[in-house]
Amino acid sequence: MRFAVSMLTVLGIASIIGTVLKQNEPYENYIIKFGQFWFEAFEKLGLYDVYHAAWFLLILLFLVISTSLCIYRNSPLMVREWKTFKEHAAEKSLRAFSHQASFSQSNLNQQAETAETKAKLANYLASQGFKFKFNTQQNGDELIAAKAGTHQRLGYIFTHVAMVVIFFGGLLDGNLPLKVQELLGQKKIETLDIPESQVPAISRLTIGNPSFRANMTLPEGLSDNVAFVRVRDGYLVQELPFRVALKDFRIEHYATGQPKSFESDIVITDSDLKQPLTKTISVNHPLIYKGIAIYQSDFQDGGSAVDFKVWDLTKSDIQTSMLNGEIFKKGSVGEGSNQLTVEFNEFRKFNIINLSPDGKGKPRNVGPNITYKLRDATGQAREYVTYMQPMKLDGKFYFISGMRETVQEDFKYLRIPVDDDFEMDGFMRFRAAMLDSKLYPMIAQKLTANALTKDTQLQAQFEQSVVQLLTTFAAGGYTNVAQAIEKAVPEAEREKAAQAYIKMLNGAAFEAYNLSLAKNKKPLLVFNNDTQALLQDNLNALSDSFFYGTPHYLQLVDFKHAEASGLQLTKSPGQKWVYLGSVLLVIGIFAMFYIRERRIWLLVKKNGDKPSEVLFAMSANRKNLDFDQEFERTKSQLSQLLA
Amino acid sequence: MNTETLNFTPKTLWQSLKVQDWLYALLLVAGAIFAYNQYSQFMDIYEVSFLFGAAAVFSYLGWRWKGLAKLVIGVGIISLFSIILYDGDQARATQAFLLKFLISSQSAIMWMNVLFILAMFIYWFALYKRSDFVGRVASALTWSAVLFGFVGLMVRWYESYLIAPDVGHIPISNLYEVFILFCLITSLLYLHYESKFNTKQLGGFVLLIINAAVVFILWYRFDRGADAIQPLVPALQSYWMKIHVPANFVGYGSFSLAAMVASAYLLSKKGILTSRLPSLEVLDDVMYKAIAVGFAFFTIATILGAMWAAEAWGGYWSWDPKETWALIVWLNYAAWLHLRMVKGLRGPVLAWWALIGLLVTTFAFLGVNMFLSGLHSYGEL
Q1: What is the mean pLDDT of residues A87-97?
Q2: How far is Cα A594 from Cα A601, in angstroms, rounded to an integer?
Q3: What pTM did the predictor assign?
Q4: H/E element holding A543?
Q5: What pLDDT, in 10s, does the model give residues A304-331?
Q6: ipTM, 2 decimals?
Q7: CATH 3.90.105 at A87-150+596-642, yes or no
Q8: Mutate to test the interface with A, among B1, B331, B350, B376 (most CBs of A within 10 A)
Q9: For residue A50, which residues of chain B lie inside 8 Å, CB to CB?
Q10: CB-based contacts of A162: which residues, under 8 Å, 6+ apart?
């Protein structure tokens, strides 16, 4: 008993570990979190999969053994108590009961015979739902022993057997057999990312495997007859007795943009089937075939085709090249030693984002985005996320692309303003002009023409400084200009110089922008507030582009969305046992709590044919208020009955 | 004396039913049939069985506890009245006078909050004054709070369908809604014991925990705007929710009730308020009964949860943090019951245990959602 309570407590505390420490994460995450030393220590303790660790199973085993022993020891007693009327109770012990009363001759009906009294009492007990048995004692006294609610005793047996049954069911579905096979060296988890067909037999589970929980990712239009069981930092291949094909995967959305349903149209082909079985599964509506339940569990990209226009941000022209990629595949940009590998990682068709400045507005769909990595020859990679459509920020539209160097960082975003055609070409032409040193003298002359001075020497000086400024800006944006000022200008005059440069830069930007427009035969900008804001955004974007980490800007221009459905396939022969145990448990609990076992003894002592005394004793295996009340009520009813 | 006149045979439930009891049951069944005719296209076979099952269960409960029957009728009438006032237009909630100030779902819930707070102070005042009359006033306020709370939920249910038919769902799907459910179930359980044992002195204690929930509801609503009706994520679109969640909250409510009674027990044992509180035996008995009810329902709820998980997540047990904490709560009270029933332990130890059990329960209910992530991430803070 004390052991049982301790086991319950220990199991409770052990269970907490797995809720605090996230289970079954990729092992790299744990290494980052704990460092190598603790990672290994925790791994030895099995903390990354506590509920399947040997020591945890041992606790469960102890609990079951202890429960089984309990049942073994107590059941005979319970059954005896359940059956017996305890009709051999001795007068002396009845008188020692805490709940007893005696009706002496003066309280009894003087006319009644013993037999009559006996019958009356028996009737009364029956009316109260008691079962009873007569027993004439050696001295001739009549004892009526009665019981009610003894089914409560079955509650004990039911609940405890239920625990064992549930555990047995759980064991059938647990990974104990796999663990044993691993220990014996018959199975080994595969940790390498290799094609399924190359996974050796030692890492494969056959069709005969009675219980598993495996996953399968199926792109639309493909089929497969194996699934993967994740184990610690590796996996096993589970072979299936049929083939599953995914015809279509659908996500439906509510009007607010939240997902409403995930559905997969699957087709099962099996030599045992005359024709393929077609069925739509969704969350909460799995398909069960051949004892294997197929669930809609998640979804991911199924290799969407993505097309890019690649801009070179460092060049003084607007030449672009095309790049076609596929999610989960690789491509390349750049040439020679500057070639970079592009890893297309994720494409999302819908992005529900809340763009309102205070965060209180409604989230909106901002359209598709793509996440990719650019990796150089040394293996260094930067991660990029680029949105296909311009996004409205503070009332203006920008093309957004973010970059980060490590996964821990937040993305730093480059915001490219849209032009009149809602494209980024305007910026790109502006960029080309600003980076084209051949244009600088022309820009400088135009600026000078607008200046008030007619002094040619001053004009030449001004022109020179415009060219100088543009060259500095083209080599690294505002940061570079600021550094140049810091180097050349005394501290006291920096503020003033900076303002002068900014003004000059804005003027130059206006001229450069118009030059780029003229070159492409577009109407020129007129200088006003809107234009100024546009130029400012363009200058900012250009300045930020020096920190974009790569010269290649990948503009997503087209896509063909392909989805893959994540299916979970499980076989759990223990389920029916667990349910059986659950039913037993509920019946048992209600029996224990809501059936009250009570016993009544009525000893009729005789004096000739007449009763001389009636001794009333009552007991319950659980004494509480209800019992006290029932005793008092019975006592008063008996006294009326006997009088 | 003629023995024939002495008949102590207790009346069975059927024998004890009067005309009004039958009328009550008839009304519920008629209501269920009406609802079926109106809305059967929104229900699957399980939900239809829940509908008629609810009529049967509430008939039975109403027969056993007349106060509940009155509540059920009251909630029904006021909710229907509110729905008529809505007239199929969500905007009416802020236009129609009665809706705006009394029985739109948000107003009714606000009234529930106010009445619970008021009831608590009056219960304490009654305890201080030793006044049965004041106690009855507090009790009436608690009943009205429950009435408004259920009207609030019923109307919210209707409102959710006004937003869009595919958004409509029973309002027990997020933290805001289940906190209201928690308040209602806990106070109903308390009112039941109050009517059975006449223990109005405990009202102040039980309403402490209910009002803690009320404070949360207010904060959650005004600081987080959590009262907005959100559509259901795919995983929650299941008939299981209609039985799993309420069963769980009968468990949580009972455990909370037991803990508050335990705190009264411990105070009384220390000589604080002893003369005002019910006897230690009564307190001990109520505490045991509450934990027994809670344990039974928590067991059922966990089993229903396992069955749902087997349908939604691919397995009846995934060691998800919520599942694991449910197991911990279950183990905790299983140990409590073992000590009491097998060892015959009584007194302060068990009272302390019930009180600490509340911490475990609260963590399972709330802490898991706040601090741990897992499959049960519907009610994130």
Answers
A1: 92
A2: 23
A3: 0.85
A4: helix A529-545
A5: 999 999 999 988 888 899 999 999 999 9
A6: 0.94
A7: no
A8: B331
A9: 319
A10: A581, A582, A583, A584, A585, A588
